[in-house]
Amino acid sequence: MKAEKVMGRGVLGLVFAGLFAIGAGAQSPQPTPQQQDVQQDKKDIRNDKKDLQQDRADRNQDNRDIRQDKRDVNSDKKDIRQDNKDIYHDKSDIHQDNKDISKDKSDLNKDRADRNADQRDINHDKGDLSKDRADRNADQRDINHDKQQLKQDDQKYGANSAQAQADRKDLQHDRTDRNVDQRDINHDKVDLSKDRTDRNADQRDINKDKADLSADQKDRNQDVKDLNHERQDRNQDVKDLHQDQKDLHADRQDRNKDQKDINKDKKDLHQDRKDLHHDQRAVAKATPRHR
Questions:
Q1: What is the pTM of this model?
Q2: What is the DSSP letter of 29?
Q3: Neighbour count for residue 81 (Cβ, 10 Å)
């Protein structure tokens, strides 16, 4: 009995709820076509404002990109100009280094020729010195023999004898020869010392020329490396310039497109507002006035 009462109350509640819903639906009027147009116009205006705001943001970003691209292009052009100056400077350095290397080689060849000539003079002086010493020694032996012969002749024939006088002449002649040979020896020693000094100076010049040649070759090689590096930098800067110019052109196209979109959005917004005003006037005319 209690279950039947509960079920009865539930059915009554469902029926009451259905009747209430039908009554509420009957009380809320459906929007007219003019009102639907007004709602759609408002929705279109909101969308147009969003599109306009987004297109302006895109246009502003494109302008910032364009300004940055211009700065990049100017910077790349400046780098290229500096690279070309560096390349010109490196070429001048290489040209000067090659001139220095050529001069060093010429100096080295000349100093070697001088050194070889001095060495030949030293060898000749040594030969002369050896010959003059041999002559001096032979003259000394003749002097010793003449002294011995004079002593014997003085004892045998007397100091005023013809034999003794002849021995004295031979002794004097040999002493003169010995003295001449000694002067030649002294002269040969001076020449030998001078030629050795010249040879040593030439050798020092040769060593200096070798050091200069090596240093100039190192400078030339370093300048060649610098030149190749500067050319690589210049070529990379040219590539960067072309890429930045492409970016600048692309950003300008994007900016122009965004500006066209902005102009179109403004026209659409203006037209939607115009439609909204027209639809609002139509709704106002269609709505009955109550006194």
A1: 0.58
A2: P
A3: 12
